[in-house]
Structures are given as C-alpha cells and as structure tokens.
C-alpha cells in the first residue's frame, strides 16, 4: 500500500504529477477525466447543475467520486443498476480509501426486497410458511447466513439461487413491516442501513430507490434516504423512464391477491380468523377475478383511453371490487389496535382502493393510461406524459447541485433533448470524448443491398447477412434486436446456419447468459433491449455487435404514442424532436457494448440502411463516435484479417 495522501482538490488528484500518478507507476494521464472532475467539483461547490457526457474509457466513476468526497457535503450517487452500485462500493471506494488520510464515510442503500427481515426468519422457524424441499434447503442457507451477516444484503449469499421463492417469504419489503413496533426494530437490517446512511457523507443508491424515495419525500415517515446537498446520477439517460414509474400509479390483480394471502396467513398465525373475515376475503377474491376478467386477453401493453366508457359498462363489477376492498379495510380496522402486523395491511387495502379509483375516475389529461397483461397478471398502469415539470419542482429546484452523467446523453453533440425531457433547463454542460481511437479500433458497416426493414423480405435477407458476418468474426458477437419478434425470427434462421454456440435471451437469467457468453469461445448471443446497456465484455470474446434496425420506439406503445401526441399538441414535430433523439441515444448504447478498452477491436454492423438513405440519418452519425465506416463487406473481411 502506498503512503496515504491528503488530496485537497480534483486537480491535485488527477493531474499528470498528481496523487493518482504517484500511486500507479503505469498511470496514464487522461485529460478528459481531469476536466470532468474539475467540472463536478465546481458544480458542487457553486451549487450548480451539470450535465456531462463522458465517453467510454474516461474513468467517470473516479471523476465524480473524488470531488464528491472532497466536497465535505453529503452527496447521493445514484446508479442505473445494483451491479454498478456494488462496483462503486466494493471496488472503487476501497481503492480510494487506501490513499486518503481520513476514513471515507461511504455506504450503499438498496430497496427493501434486497434485505432479509429477521422477524420473518424467526417466524419461519416456528410457522409452516415454507413449501417443498427446495424452499427448506434455501431457508437453511439464509438462516445460517443471518447469524453472521452485518448488512442483511442478499447479494452476500452466493449459493442462493436467483429465483429462490424462499427469499421472497423472508425479505424486508414494507408490505408487512410494523416499523418501530417490531421487536427486532433495533436489530433490523433496514434500521441499520438507515443508521449507516445518517453517518455517511457519500450514499450510493440506484435510480429506482432514489425516485421511490423522492416520490414520498414530503412524508418524513415514508422517506428512506437522509437529506443531501448534491446528487450524482450515473447512467442518467435512464432517468425519464425510471422517474415516470414512481410518479405514476399501478393496480393489479396480483397486488390484491397478495394482500388477501397476507391477511389470511397472518390471521391463521395469530389466531384472528373469524367466519366474517373469511367471508369478506372470499368476496374480495371473487370481486377481483370478475373485475379483471373484463380487460383484454392479449399479452403486452394496450392503451386505455376509454376509462369513462369502461366505468359505465362495468359499473357494478367496479364498485363491487371497491366495496370488497373497503370491507376488507373495515375488518382490518377492527383488529388493528391489538395486532401491530395488521397496520400495514390496512394501509395497503386503502392504497389499492384509492389507486383503483384514481386510475378509473381521476383527471387524466396529464397521464397516459394502459393495461398490461403478463401471463395471469393484469396490470392497470398510468404515468405522467411529461415528467419534466415534476422533476423541475421536486428535484432540480430543491437540490442545490445535480450532476447527470453517462456515455450517451447528447444527440448530434448537444444536450437540448435531455434538458427538455427532464426539465433541467438551467445547467452547465460538458462533453468529454472517449480516449479510445475509434477510427483504428472499430469499423461501422452498413450494407446497402438489404431491403427496407419494413419490407417483408427483410428478415430473410438480414439473417443471411448475419451469417456472413458471424463467419467473418468467428462468432464472438452480440446480435441486438429491437423487438422480441425480430430476435426470435433471426435466431431461428441463423442458429442452424452457423457452427458457433448460439445463446438466446429468455432461456436463462440475464447474468447467467452473460457469464456463459464470456466463458464460451466463439459464442453468439441474440438479445433485445436489456443487453443494449450495462453490459461489459472486454477483449476478443466480443468482436462484433450487429444491430438489426434503428431502435425507434414502437409508435403504437401507449407511452410513446402519448408523448409523441403531446409534442404534436405543443406545435412540435414528434419524429424529429422525440423519436429520432431517443433512437440515437439507444443506438449509441447498443454500439457502446463493443469497445470497452484501448486494446478492444471490432466491427459494428447496422443492417438498417435508412441511416445512409434518409436525411435524418445524419443525426445518428453526428451522435455516434467517429468510427471508421464502410458499406463494403470486403472491408469487414480485411478488418478481421488484420493481426
């Protein structure tokens, strides 16, 4: 370990002869990293907002962590994924701690379902809540781990299967939490998490937890994250979609059924069962089944603009469900004074009734409403059409300094699209290019002979082109598709035409598929949106990224349709002002999977030649890094033939 260093500014840390260069003899000075760090430092000190696009390889994690630590203020770092949270806390922070004189006061916070509930674990030893040998075996792993863990974070248990149903029965989700009335409150992992946060200067969260907390911030009891003076959003391109979820509303048959099951389980454990309670719960089950049977049977999302007509047509079934929820609440109210566990159940019944009424009868001009069916689940959902005014009011006007960063924030070199969508109009901006030599390391190939992607002949021709590309790259490729339908169609045609191991999204957990890809020579992975970002495969194992089409959002999707219509109503051009910028950022994300280090080399193939034939294609080119470019497959062959 090198001698601990007292760093007083970002420049003294990142400069050519600064602290970082002293610790690492092979340290390579990155001007972009220093530029970003100084911009973050100034924004926090001067209470300003800042948007930074930091190209891959900039070293942006340290570029915001160091000035955040040096600021002396409580700073929230919000990431796009839990994996990135863990990387910051378990890799970057310990690295910095080796070289700072003072102890760094840093913690991480996740959503409640990531933590175990001690009381549920102890109850499970006495009460028959486990089903089958698999759950019993998983519970034994959890029970032994609970005796020694300090955090209660499920991520510590490497031997627990990802889909363990035992975990869902003992996690710390708030639906059954009695808070300070719980006998385990002082030892509760959630209590401990909040204590660590109160004692920390840097708190690492993820976007979902941050916006769940922001949505209830006015209610001190419901708030989880302590007060802060600055926020850094890493992977900030995700903010609009994530924030929308938490300022919207959702009601589903599964939510009501889970409530009914939880009431039944507690009434049995506590000896609270009565014929009247059983009758009310049976009525709730019946009313739920009849009401949700009224909605369309097709899978996926469909818009729901006819709320008033629906209420008129199904008035009896709707009010039967409201009454059943109300009667459930009455029954719970009668016993809540004597049993603490009933209090959160009563709150859930009331919230479900309020949300159902708001969904079907509330003022709807500012929200988009849709129905989503997933298997047996029917979800009634609504989100704000435009999140910008809410974020301006609740975030940017209240927090002195917010820093938004990602490798993909600008469109055509500017930040207007992001600023308008998020309501952050008064911010500093900085574009830090990647230190990688994209002209030398990468080649963008756009075949000109393929049909238009909207043509029925496209799938067959695209599959044939993919086979040619995979034979040149010897597998080692991601085939990123813009829809599940396209992914399956291309996979079915290509998988039998190549001799390489072919993986398909959906056949296993995401992390397991990614691990299998990394350890399988010459593998090919067919995937959709969840693999377009947050995936890092360095080296020759990933040498080709193939994208089937320009990633325009599906225009018939209820949220997309509502947002494009909102732009049109305001006199704008939805395709140019919303759909093209959104697709440009998505394409940058997909292509960003390929070049992850200075030694990576590879080919990016876009099978959609509208990028070269339509005028709007220039916006995509202006948004992408400066890749070498070709329309000739022979140049792809030459690229792969180079040593």
Q: What overall geometry do the principal axes of the alpha carbons give?
A: globular
Distance linking N and C termini:
38 Å
Overall pLDDT, averaged?
Answer: 90
Which CATH architecture of the largest domain is right? Answer: 3-Layer(aba) Sandwich
- Kindly report the name of the CATH homologous superfamily of the largest domain: P-loop containing nucleotide triphosphate hydrolases
Strand order of the largest sheet: 3-4-2-5-10-1-11
CATH class of the largest domain: Alpha Beta
Give the low-pLDDT segments.
Answer: 1-5
- Describe the sheet with the most strands: 7 strands, parallel
Helix content: 40-55%
Question: Can you describe what's shown?
Answer:
This protein is an alpha/beta fold and 643 residues long. The protein has 3 domains: 1-105 and 200-245 and 387-435, 3-Layer(aba) Sandwich (Rossmann fold), CATH 3.40.50.300; 249-384, Fumarase C, Chain B, domain 1, CATH 1.10.275.40; 438-641, P-loop containing nucleotide triphosphate hydrolases (Rossmann fold, 3-Layer(aba) Sandwich). Helices cover 47% and strands 13% of the residues. The protein is built from 27 helices and 18 strands. Helix 4 packs across helix 5, helix 10 (207-215) packs across helix 11 (239-246) and helix 12 (253-269) packs antiparallel against helix 16.
Please write out the topology.
Elements: H1 10-14, H2 19-23, H3 31-45, E1 50-54, H4 60-70, E2 75-79, H5 82-97, E3 106-108, H6 118-126, H7 132-146, H8 165-170, H9 189-198, E4 202-206, H10 207-215, E5 230-234, H11 239-246, E6 249-252, H12 253-269, H13 275-292, E7 300-303, H14 307-313, H15 315-335, H16 342-361, E8 367-374, E9 377-384, H17 388-396, E10 401-406, H18 416-422, E11 428-432, H19 438-441, E12 442-445, H20 458-473, E13 477-480, H21 484-494, E14 502-504, H22 510-519, E15 524-527, E16 544-547, H23 558-569, H24 574-591, E17 602-606, H25 610-613, H26 617-623, E18 628-630, H27 633-641
